[in-house]
Specification:
about 30% strand, about 120 residues, 7 strands
Length: about 120
C-alpha cells in the first residue's frame, strides 16, 4: 500500500510504500493524488521505498508505467530508497520520468523533500 507522508511543504505529495504494492493502491491512492496535484498546476512527488516495502505485484508494475499521465504538470520526482534494484532502475529509466527526477538514499529523505519542493 501507499502510506501518505506527513509534514510536507505546500505543493508536495509524498508516499511511503508499505508491504506489497498492488494495482489497487495506484488506483485508489497514488493516481488520484497525482491528478489533484496536476489540477493545481504542478506534480511534485516524493516516493519512499524503504524497509517496510516488500515489492510490487505484477499489476502494480504495469500501473507504474501509467504515472506519466499529466506529463506537462510534472515538475520534480524523488525516489528515496537504498534498494539496489531501485538504484539500478532509477539510473536506467529515470530519464523517462517527466520533469526532473532524482534518486536519494533513505538517510537523505529530508534532502529529497527539500529538492522536490525547490524552484525549477
Amino acid at each position: 500500500m501507499f502510506e501518505p507522508m506527513s509534514e510536507l511543504p505546500e505543493g508536495v505529495i509524498g508516499f511511503e510504500a508499505v508491504g506489497t504494492v498492488e494495482a489497487a493502491d495506484y488506483e485508489r491512492t497514488l493516481m488520484p493524488a497525482i491528478a489533484r496535484a496536476a489540477e493545481g498546476g504542478d506534480v511534485r512527488l516524493v516516493l519512499v521505498l524503504g524497509d517496510r516495502f516488500t515489492g510490487y505485484s505484477a499489476g502494480a508494475m504495469k500501473d507504474d508505467a501509467g504515472l506519466v499521465a499529466h506529463a506537462k504538470s510534472w515538475k520534480r520526482t524523488a525516489v528515496v530508497s537504498d534498494l539496489g534494484w531501485v538504484a539500478h532502475l532509477s539510473t536506467a529509466f529515470g530519464w523517462m520520468v517527466p520533469g526532473k527526477f532524482k534518486r536519494f538514499g533513505l538517510a537523505e529523505r529530508d534532502a529529497a523533500v527539500a529538492w522536490v519542493s525547490g524552484s525549477d
